[in-house]
Every structure is written in C-alpha cells, then in structure tokens.
Amino acid sequence: MTGFPEPSGETADTAELLARYLDFYRAAVVRKVASLAAVEQRSSRLPSGWTPVELLHHLAHMERRWLVWGFLGESMPDPWAEERDGRWHVPDDLPLESVIDLLTQGGSRTSDVLAAHALSETGVPGGRFEGDPPTLAWICFHVLQEYARHAGQLDVAVELAGGDLGE
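Now predict its structure.
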C-alpha cells in the first residue's frame, strides 16, 4: 500500500477496511525502521530504552497473540517470545529481514482470517482468553490501535535517528 487509506465510496465492508488500515500501518512501521542505519535500528535514543527493531518485533508477536492464539485458538509455543526481563528483546543474531518476514507473515494470516470469518465471531476460549472471548471486530480494532500508537512512538525514535517520518 502506498498511501494512507483515504475515505471513498469504494467499500463499506468493515473487514476490508480493517485489513487495509492494518496493511498500511504494517508497511509504515517497516518503512520507518528500514530507513535507519543498521546501528540505529538496534539502538535506543529514548529514556524507556526500546529500539526500533524491538518495536517491530513486538508488533509481529502482538498481532499473532491476538489473531492466531486469541481468535483462532491455535497453540503458540511462546506467545510472549519478544519479551525478556519485562522488556522487548530481539536476539542479536536475528536479522531485520527475519523480523520483517515475521511481521509480513502475520499480516497475511490476519488478512486470511478477516476474509474467512465474520467480525461478529468470537475468539476461541482458552489460551489467550479465559471466560468470554472478544469478537473478531474488537480484536482487530485493538490490533489497529496498537499499530497506530506504536507507529507514532516510532516517529519520535526515527526522527531522533534521522530516518523517514510520517505516513
């Protein structure tokens, strides 16, 4: 996707709109991180200490937790694999391309879920959700707000490091 999904009469299908916005934000965070020099991708200029590649890795795992483990109810060996000692972590030997592939594969899976399920369907109990799981619509809105919030946070880190900003 090249630009922000502008309003149009092209579709009123909520699942398609969610898929487009998620695709847009995935592409935006990848572009921002990839615009940085390799050392800046794995360095932090922020008091909180997270790095741009850690944020990207977090987003990939976050989306899988909500859609694959949560909604579909599929087993995940380590749903919190991007965390270590209470903070985001990316192994030093994991290249950026592998993190991007993980994010892209998760995005394709989300698009498949949105194409195959009604937004009113609820997630599978157990795993991520005990009790009453949320609907696919709720899950997608949550994932979308995570991407939007983190894309904004990433703008600050990328601006400080001299990379591409904005949408």
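The domain at 15-161 is CATH 1.20.120.450 (Four Helix Bundle (Hemerythrin (Met), subunit A)).
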